[in-house]
Amino acid sequence: MSQNTVLTNEEKVKLSQAFDDLISWCMYQQLYNHLVSNGTSITFVNNPNRNTAAGYNPETNTIQFKGTSNMIAINLAEELFHAYQNSYYPEGLSISTTEGRADIEFEAKVFGDIECSLRFGICGSTLGSEEYDKWIIFITDNYSSIPSWDKLLERSPSTGNKNYWDFLFDFSRAGIGYNYTPTYQIPNAMIYMLQQSSNSNCY
To answer: How far is CA 53 from its chain centroid?
Structure first.
């Protein structure tokens, strides 16, 4: 992966530290390696006028941060996953349409929640619901393994008999900025990266 930066030296040091932290996390190391091996080029920009801590623009392949203090691994992680999605899916991503946006955002957040739970156990919940938190515990076998796609489709009484598709629907109705009708496209980018991470035996 090549980096085109419009950053000061201080910001470059901060971004470098964020990358160092990020690739110490198993699943994101696999994602980073994939981007590097595919020669993905991403531009990094500091934009204090942003409304959120960080964001990814697929049309310019740019990751923006709202100030140096936001150049940290946790913010880099999700935006880098979006860059990966943009390169993985043949049609790429788009900021000009809301179709499929809930699916794309939920895919990225589930990937992050799985990684976080395997490293730390209980993490901040994407949905803020007990059912979702219990689902993360269920699919990771109590924070011990990277789940397969089949596992994400299983239902359990402990999770309200919900699976990935049900929680995607809940996510699209949760009022957290992604209130778009899901298209229910299979999240192949996430599935592939879960497989790669599982094959690496880092958890």
So the answer is: 15
Average pLDDT over all residues of the chain? 92
pLDDT reading at 125 higher than 90: no
Q: Residue 139 above 90 pLDDT?
A: yes
Which burial class, exposed, middle or buried, applies to 200 when counting CB atoms under 10 A from its CB (0-12, 13-18, 19+)? middle
Beta carbons within 10 angstroms of residue 185's beta carbon: 11
Q: What is the DSSP string of 47-94?
A: -TT-SSSEEEETTTTEEEESSGGG-SHHHHHHHHHHHHHHHHSTT---
User: Could you tell me how many residues make up the chain?
Assistant: 203
Q: How far apart are CA 56 and CA 64, in angstroms?
A: 6
* Beta strand 2-6 pairing with 41-46: parallel
The pLDDT confidence band at residue 1, using thresholds 50, 70 and 90, is low
| Strand (E) or helix (H) holding 5 | strand 2-6
Question: How far apart, in whole angstroms, are the C-alpha atoms of residue 65 and residue 42?
Answer: 13
Residue 96, pLDDT > 70, answer: no
C-beta atoms surrounding 39 within 10 Å? 9
Q: Is the pTM of this model over 0.90?
A: yes
Q: Is 140 exposed, middle or buried (0-12, 13-18, 19+ CB in 10 A)?
A: buried
